[in-house]
Amino acid sequence: GMDPGTNGLTHGSESDLIHGHCACKRISFEVDGDILDFGHCHCSICRRLHGAAYATFAGVERSRFRYLAGETDVRIYSSSPRNDRVFCAHCGSPILVDPKTEPARLYLSMSAVEGD
């Protein structure tokens, strides 16, 4: 089960994975690993693509991320020389940012992560 003190973001064992999905649920994913860093980005690209004052991301190890469903609905927008934005072709939900400068890391859009 989930420990209420972790806001649903428990990890470590097979049953305690980070899960997420887009709004239409065509794309789903999991991460078998910990959140390595966490941040709010307020650059003009994040504000425009997320329709908010900032976008919140959780850094995870790329090798621990995998799609469970909907990989054919994944689209990539290269928003800058540094970052690719990954989103759902059907509903437009942001899934993650793939930083070209950090080959071992992905940044999950917290809007797509299940739990609190």
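(the above was protein one; protein two follows)
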Amino acid sequence: MSPERPVDVSLLVPAKDEAENLPEFVKLCGEHLGGRTFSFEVVIVNDGSRDRSADVLRELQGKYDFLRVVTHRRQRG
């Protein structure tokens, strides 16, 4: 998605220690929201995860242009 293009729908998702689930979740978001008449983004807030969530999200950002990531170094709730 181009940064100049306005976003019609933003999906905000909190995540803590979800490294195993994130790839499937993001894939399903793309499958179910992609191809619609509206533009969208999925914003995942990594809330102080201690597993590989941050690494997984970095990898997924390279694959899915609709994915945005916010990372908190420690849990903020």
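Reviewer note on protein two: Residues 23 and 66 are 14 Å apart (CA to CA).
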